[in-house]
Amino acid sequence: MSAVSVEEHSAAVETVLAALATRTAHRIPLADALGRVSFADVRSPVDLPLFRNSQMDGYAVDSRSVAIAPVTLPVSTIIAAGPVEAAVLSPGSAAKIMTGAPIPDGADAIVPVEDTTVHEAGSVTIERRRTAGEFVREQGSDVRTGTVLVEAGRVLEPRHISVLAAVGFGEVDVRSRPRVAVVTTGAELVDAGSTLTPGQIYDSNGITLAAHLRASGAEVVSVLRSSDEPSRFREILDAAAQSAELIITSGGVSMGDFEVVKDVLRPLGGNFGSVRMQPGGPQGITVFDGVPVLSFPGNPVSTVVSYIVFARNIVRRAAGLPPILSTTATLHESVVSPPGRRQLLRGRMRDDGRVELVAGPGSHLVAALAWADVLIDIDSATTELAAGSDVEVWPL
Ligand code: AMP
Ligand code: MG
To answer: Which ligand is closest to the CA of 299, given by its number?
Structure first.
């Protein structure tokens, strides 16, 4: 791969990741389904309400017996919400009833408790008249058996989970998530939380890529780290390829002496070279053991920019999530950009809706990445933009 444009490299990534979009159904507990994507239309197996029930705490009556009010009726029974024998209202009486309890046969209206006066002798005065159907929740008045409750492709939110539980589903078929492994490389890397010796740094790319992937709807099957030793990297890659449909590597792809990713994968058919963008110039694509491998440079900003530019929307599409698109913003300050390379600068949206630069273009500036909320996209032909110009920005 000689230097190619972002579009050319994106097209190559699309091709190698095409199979990721084919997903299967995965049956999971409804309790775990938040944020997952429904695989198929889900139809209601029942009517809702499931049975005719009371909308109020009050008295179930035959509306004909309360056509003229006030009227005093004997209280023949009490019906609570919960398992009940089929109840029948004795003619000319009232049945005390709680919200959600089944309405007895022979009753067609509910008188709310607020409209009654109770007498010690077991009778109740209905203070105002009620007509048939008042405060009665009819079976199926919410939804009928067979109606689609949640369409295929919906990202399941609490409201969808609510209706699926209400009709009795304990499980739901969701779209399987793309399974991705992350492999970081570098003899200098150790886990955050451990003690550093001179020359070591914390591995932030592994955890960062995993977080980005999860946010894109992927299942991160492993986050592994290799030294710069080719045999070790090969072992780790073999392990990653066992369960992943996509492997993302970081580091070891540029022009140094110990570029383990490039050194191992190029002889296996990997395509390594330079993309005309900054940061994130050195890139690689390999199919290893049938598993596509995207190789990003190790600088933390380069890794993240590479993920966003080349992989994020592909992973999201496979996961069934909508793409994250760029928008247009107005530059708060002037910007210069080297010719011949697409620049992705860290920017921050201001309260006035304009975008300002955050720190410089250095791809090691990881704190500035945290302060930024967009990437400012400047095409390779542009070398200068005045304050007030329109630019394309990508949400981070
Ligand atoms: P490389 O692409 O391997 O040449 O690495 C470029 C720079 O990124 C070096 O300063 C590395 O120490 C740093 N780097 C590489 N991998 C990581 C990582 N996983 N976490 C943090 N920094 C890294
Ligand atoms: Mg390295």
So the answer is: 1
